[in-house]
Amino acid sequence: MSDSEPDLELLELLRQHIAGKPQVAAEPDTGVLESAEYVYNNSIDVALDMRSCKNAARAIYSQMQTKSYSPATWAAHELHPHPSKGDKPEDVVAFIFTMDLLNFCFWSERGEEERFSIEYKGRRWTGYWSLVAALQRALEEGIPITDPHFWQNEEELTLSTLKHVFRSATSEEMPLLAARLSCLREAGQILYEKFSCHPLHLVTSSNNSAARLVNTLASNFSCFNDTHSPPSFPRKKPIRLLKRAQILVADLWACFEGQGPYGKFYDIDKITMFADYRIPQMLNQLGCIQYSPPLETTVQLKRDIPSGSNWEIQLRACSIWCVELIRREILRENPGARVNAILIDFFLYDTIKEMENDGRERAPHHRTRSIWY
Ligand SMILES: Nc1nc2c(c(CN[C@H]3C=C[C@H](O)[C@@H]3O)cn2[C@@H]2O[C@H](COP(=O)(O)O)[C@@H](O)[C@H]2O)c(=O)[nH]1
């Protein structure tokens, strides 16, 4: 927690003390939804189309039911680790932590045959799946890539070791490799100093609160602190998007199906959609979010949109708000439906990936190089 930000939990405890109420820590909030609504209310380059959002809510919920989308969908992906596949829970937690520490920026300007890809299990994996494949391959080769001790060992884990872990089947290297090494180094240091050198203790420190775990990640690890203060949104509080902190919690919840010491979160519905570069593309394809002409041209021409810029923050935050409105519409039409922003997000991601594979993408995703997503 930086000095300038008030400690909301402490203030709540003081308020309860004065009011004579029992001293229980207030349930924390991540501030992401508040940030998303603020940016949406002050955006001029990204707008939401309510009719499309209503239609999308109906179509998404119907298809999620057809495909029986649930947390169990996570383990069904062949590359994801899972106790049912013989993986020890503590190793699964370490894998998910490592994966979401590095879960950013896989896009390439090269064609399908030339883009960065990982050869594993007789297949070439690209995008997010190239990350998962590379981690699985490294573990099978005896490289302790999910061990924080290894991350801190500058003799063992060098940039060339990491290049070997992510060696490509093509001439293109994985993007931002040096930045990924910095994330591993920092995470190793913080886990050593504060969480007995294992992500298990980080997860259990949240006392089954998803919001508290997100905030712990954001306040202790700078590489998870996906917050921004663009000049075009002048307000005291930074805009909190926290994409990788949130998807880490969501992956734990989905993997363990909301159960046990590493998967049970009583406030999991506080997690929002994860502001990456795929969901905005899918929401735009559905007509739910629409861009101003200059932004539309920039995205269509695959021009760089700088990280933390006005356009990029609008794209990411308005997408979060859009999925929140879709979630509310699904629950309005289907009271009691077991749907949250996580499952809607996972569905939208998997759907745009199917469209990419079938050549049905109607427009490119936006191009921003960053460690945040
Ligand atoms: N919002 C959101 N972003 C997601 C995912 C996933 C994968 N999640 C799996 C787990 C359960 C689900 O069923 C998925 O199978 C990756 N990403 C992000 O996308 C980008 C990679 O894109 P591409 O290069 O095209 O693969 C990159 O920023 C990455 O961080 C998601 O689910 N939601």
Automatic annotation (TrEMBL):
Signal peptide, first to last residue: none
Enzyme Commission number(s) from the entry: 3.2.2.-
Entry-linked Pfam families: Q_salvage
Recorded catalytic activity of this chain's protein: queuosine 5'-phosphate + H2O = queuine + D-ribose 5-phosphate
Enzyme class (EC, first level): hydrolase
InterPro entries: Q_salvage (IPR019438)
Keywords, comma-separated and alphabetical: Hydrolase
Superkingdom, taxonomy of origin: Eukaryota
Function field: Catalyzes the hydrolysis of queuosine 5'-phosphate, releasing the nucleobase queuine (q). Is required for salvage of queuine from exogenous queuosine (Q) that is imported and then converted to queuosine 5'-phosphate intracellularly.
Family the UniProt entry places it in: Belongs to the QNG1 protein family.
Protein's UniProt name: Queuosine 5'-phosphate N-glycosylase/hydrolase
Organism from which the protein derives: Podospora bellae-mahoneyi
